[in-house]
């Protein structure tokens, strides 16, 4: 496990040489928010951004720009991916339909790091910038 953290940390070193040492094609990030009236599933990897806004719909897929991918990697850099399952949600509005239920997954070479559920629009502070960037990118391509 520590090897994976070290490996991922090399990915996020700011110089271009270190980023090329790991397989960026093996990184995928998924964000999902759902409630009675809301459904959003966003999947981002180095090549594509896929968005589904209604359960059962066909995903809308667009190429992921190099700038968007660099922004994702930049906000992913300070996150301890192994700790994502242990993050606590700052609010509990999802328990009474006050917010959609959201979660985040980071997948690297077949290993999945998934957050506990949190309120859509109010993620744990440790992943807040990443969630904000994912939502921003998805809104700009629709």
From TrEMBL:
Top-rank taxon, per record: Bacteria
Protein name listed in UniProt: Lipoprotein
Species of the source: Mariniflexile jejuense
């Amino acid at each position: 496990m520590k090897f994976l953290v070290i490996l991922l940390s090399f990915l996020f070193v700011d110089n271009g040489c270190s980023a090329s040492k790991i397989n960026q094609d093996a990184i995928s990030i998924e964000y999902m928010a759902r409630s009675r009236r809301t459904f959003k599933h966003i999947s981002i990897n180095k090549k594509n951004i896929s968005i589904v806004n209604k359960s059962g719909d066909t995903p809308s897929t667009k190429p992921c720009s190099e700038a968007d991918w660099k922004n994702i990697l930049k906000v992913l850099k300070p996150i301890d991916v192994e700790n994502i399952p242990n993050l606590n949600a700052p609010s509990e509005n999802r328990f009474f339909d006050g917010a959609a239920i959201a979660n985040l997954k980071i997948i690297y070479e077949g290993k999945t790091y998934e957050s506990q559920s949190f309120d859509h629009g109010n993620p744990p502070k440790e992943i807040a910038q990443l969630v904000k960037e994912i939502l921003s990118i998805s809104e700009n391509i629709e």
